[in-house]
Amino acid sequence: APGTSIPSAQRCWHRGVPREPGARWAELGCQSCTCQGGQVLCEAISCPVSCSHPLPAPAGGCCPSCSGCWYEGVARAEGDVFSLSNGNCTVCLCLAGNISCITPECPPGSCPSSSPADCCSCQPAKCSFRGRSYPHGAHFSLDGDECTTCTCRGGEVECSFAPCPVLDCPQHQRLLRPGQCCFTCQDPPAPAGCLMDDNGVEFPVGQIWSPGDPCELCICQADGSVSCTRTDCLESCPHPIRIPGQCCPDCSAGCTYMGRIFYNNETFPSILDPCLSCICLVRAV
Q: Example GO biological process term (predicted)?
């Protein structure tokens, strides 16, 4: 009655929370608990399932759901239509947690041309073409025309020209050889020499020249390209003589002293000290 108090002995304390007599609540681990006479009674939650392929319980839930389907490890949405993985053309439907599958009926004997051969165990019809019989899927060429290929598909013959590759050469380098169906690219003519773009001079294959630097030599390759290399001067002497048009200094002709050139074994007075006499001795170091 209003205004009356519930005896504390009938209340329940569970995990630090007071519960009124007759109260019912859910605990982790899918347990349903109730307070009866001051005691907490718990039991496992019972999950009645009314479908054949329910979805697993979501995270934090206890009971599976029939609002979708769980089939072969895959969750299917309500109303989803799908095919089986074995590829036998069976179609399945997910409806209210239940899976319904339908397998197409195959006609006896030969398959009609509109029926896919991989769905039925029947044998596709053969093709009769120009007095010859070909099995389903056979590829053949017409007599005297190797450029046309034909295929037998369910009793009907389909013919088409042989596909040709896309060529990346200009039109004047394309050639149709005898007995071939497609054009091919001709090899470009071998270059007769190397053409220098800067001055328009053409050098024959094997020609060696210097482009202006005496320490650099170029050669015309057989493919029309130019290969150039530089010369490294390894020989040195105290007073080398540099000859115009020559890459490396000459250490055998004479000496350069104070801007003047003296030959080997030539004696001359020193400009710095007139009492000294100098001699040019070529000794490479």
A: cellular response to virus
pLDDT digits (tens, 9 = 90+) for 112-132: 544 444 566 566 678 888 888
Least confident range from 43-52, 64-73, 183-192, 272-281: namely 183-192
Q: Long-range contacts: 139-146, Cβ < 8 Å, 24+?
A: 146/179, 146/181
Query: Quick one: three-class SS letters along the chain?
Result: CCCCCCCCCCCEEECCEEECCCCEEEECCCEEEEEECCEEEEEECCCCCCCCCCECCCCCCCCCECCEEEECCEEEECCCEEECCCCCCCEEEEECCEEEEECCCCCCCEECCCCCCCCCCCEECCEEECCEEECCCCEEEECCEEEEEEEEECCEEEEEECCCCCCCCCHHHEECCCCCCCCEECCCCCCCEEECCCCCCEEECCCEECCCCCCEEEEECCCCCEEEEECCCCCCCCCCECCCCCCCCECCCEEEECCEEEECCCEEECCCCCCCEEECCCCCC
| pTM of the predicted structure, to 2 decimals | 0.32
Question: What is the pLDDT, as a whole number, of residue 108?
Answer: 53
- In the chain, where the domains are located: 12-44, 64-102, 127-161, 193-230, 248-284
The half-sphere exposure of 37 on its side-chain side, counting CA atoms within 13 A, is 1
Distance CA 174, CA 162 (A): 18
One CATH from 2.10.70, 1.20.120, 2.30.29, 1.10.1740 for 193-230: 2.10.70
Residue position matching structure tokens 């989803």 = 80
Place of tokens 């089939």: 71
